[in-house]
Structure formats: C-alpha cells, structure tokens
Write a structure and sequence with these properties.
Layout (H helix, E strand, L loop, with lengths): L1 E9 L9 H16 L17 H7 L7 E4 L7 E8 L6 H15 L12 E4 L2 E2 L1 E2 L2 E2 L7 E2 L9 E9 L2 E2 L2 E2 L7 H15 L14 E10 L2 E4 L4 E4 L2 E9 L3 H13 L12 E5 L2
Antiparallel strand pairs: 1-3, 1-4, 1-8, 2-3, 4-5, 6-7, 9-15, 9-16, 10-11, 12-15, 13-14
Helix pairs in contact: 1-2, 1-3, 4-5
Length: 274
C-alpha cells in the first residue's frame, strides 16, 4: 500500500469537538478552486471530470475515496492529518496547495476564520517555512511492518461504523473478524483490486471489551439536513491473534476502518501488550 501523510498544526485556536465535517467541507471548496478548469464550475457532464481530482474525491459515486482525514476528538487546537492512498499520492502538490488555500484564504467554520501561522508537514518533515512551501522530492511511503505481538489492545479513537447483517454493529456484536474483513476490503478497493474473500481465518480471543456508542452528526449542504454519523468508541484487548491479522490491524491505523473514513471516522490505534 502506497501512502502519504500531510499533517497540520494550528495553535491558539478553538476547533469544534468533531472536526470531520468542517475539514472535509473546507478542503473540498479549496480543492475545487485549485483544480477546476470548467468555466461553469459545475461537475455534471463536465468535459474534464474523468481526470479531475475534485470529482474523484467528492462527486464520484460508489467508490472508495483515496484519502481520509485523521484527528482526535475534542482537541483544544487544530491538529489533523490528511492521508493519500495509492495513485492519489501523485496528486500531493494539488492537495498541499488546497490545504494552504483552506487555511490562509478560505477559512474554517461559519465565520471563515483564517490563519497565517501554522505548521505543515509531509510524512513528519516540515514543508512550510517563512511563508513558502517546499515539497520533498520523494514523498511516497510504502506500508511495511516488521513487528508482531500476539497480545494487543485496539483503541477506537473516532467512531467506528461497521455494518453486519444490514445493520450497524453494536458494542456487544463486534468481533475480530469484522475488523479484519473491513480493513482487507478497504485495502483491496483502494488499490483498484477486485474484492476477494480473506485467504485466512482470523484467530484471536477478545479478553476485554470496553466500547460505547458515541452519537455524532454532521450537516449536509447537499441534503440541507443533519445526518447521524455516530459509532463505537473505546477499547478492546485481544490475545493470541495471528500475524496476518496483526499486520492488517496495523494497516488499519493508516487507512482507517469502516464507513465514512473521509470524515475522520474509523481511526484506530494498536498497542502491543506483554
């Protein structure tokens, strides 16, 4: 899996508890301004939509979008990342330019608050200094994990939304295989591969589960209404998991798990235990 991470920190700010809707909306507006070449500014039947990054990220239906926002809920200042996956990594210059426009010229929230002092990183290396952006020559990373621990904890940092049997999974219903299958399917789709069943049976025992449902909502400008996007947060501890499951869970830290990861949902953290 190829990926790139762009990180942004804006101190002395007061962001909302849930950043996802605000970030995705502001970024989309900025991205369209940066890449759109259609005088009408409309996507429907646009002559360039098949090669348009905004169309791919926002308007194209029934696909796994090759990016996601990443952050923690309730931070006292803006501290977030945007991940690009697979061939979307090549679009980093457009993405960085759009993020810059979002912060400096477009702004956040209803009052369109803009900022001139902030830090921006690509794969943890600073790229913004004295008002100038300098991208690294090589910004593509490849997922690789050489460690393994059979005993782990998985923390669900932002709400996990997973469906099973046509309904969203409840805390008592979540199993290891649900997580592994979701990550595997997402990986396949992000790499433009046909969906196939797992070639192994996930093994491992859940020894502790402390999960709850966190209710969140976002406002949809398109539908002119609030939409519920709550899900499971908390922690699960597992023992005796197999190595393939471990590696997929570590991949899930990067690509996210479940639905609506573009809004920052499905963020997990995996910690090795003795």
């Amino acid at each position: 899996m190829r990926y790139t991470k762009v990180s942004i920190i804006i101190e002395k700010t007061t962001p909302p508890f849930f950043l996802g809707s605000q970030l995705r909306g502001a970024f989309g507006y900025a991205l369209k301004r940066v890449v759109c070449i259609n005088p009408s500014f409309k996507c429907n039947e646009c002559f360039a939509k098949d090669n348009c990054l905004y169309y791919q990220f926002y308007e194209k239906k029934n696909i796994y979008h090759k990016y996601r926002f990443d952050y923690e809920l309730g931070k006292s200042y803006y501290d977030f990342c945007l991940y690009l996956f697979d061939d979307a990594v090549l679009k980093l210059p457009y993405v960085v330019s759009s993020l810059y426009q979002m912060i400096v010229k477009i702004g956040f929230g209803k009052d369109r608050k803009t900022y001139t002092k902030f830090d921006m990183f690509v794969n943890d290396s600073s790229i913004f200094k004295d008002g100038e952006i300098i991208l690294p020559k090589n910004y593509e990373k490849k997922f690789k994990i050489d460690t393994f621990s059979p005993n782990i904890s998985v923390r669900f940092v932002t709400p996990l939304r997973l469906k099973k049997n046509n309904h969203f999974i409840k805390p008592e219903e979540l199993e290891l295989k649900d997580l592994i299958n979701s990550i595997y399917q997402r990986k396949q789709k992000l790499q433009n591969k046909e969906l196939k069943k797992l070639d192994f049976k996930p093994k491992g025992d859940i020894v502790k589960k402390e999960l709850k449902f966190l209710d969140l909502s976002r406002y949809s400008n398109r539908q002119k209404t609030k939409l519920k996007i709550g899900g499971l947060v908390g922690e699960m501890q597992m023992k005796d998991i197999d190595e393939k499951s471990y590696k997929l869970l570590k991949l899930g830290e990067i690509i996210g798990v479940g639905k609506q990861t573009v809004f920052g949902l499905g963020k997990i953290k995996v910690e090795d235990k003795k």
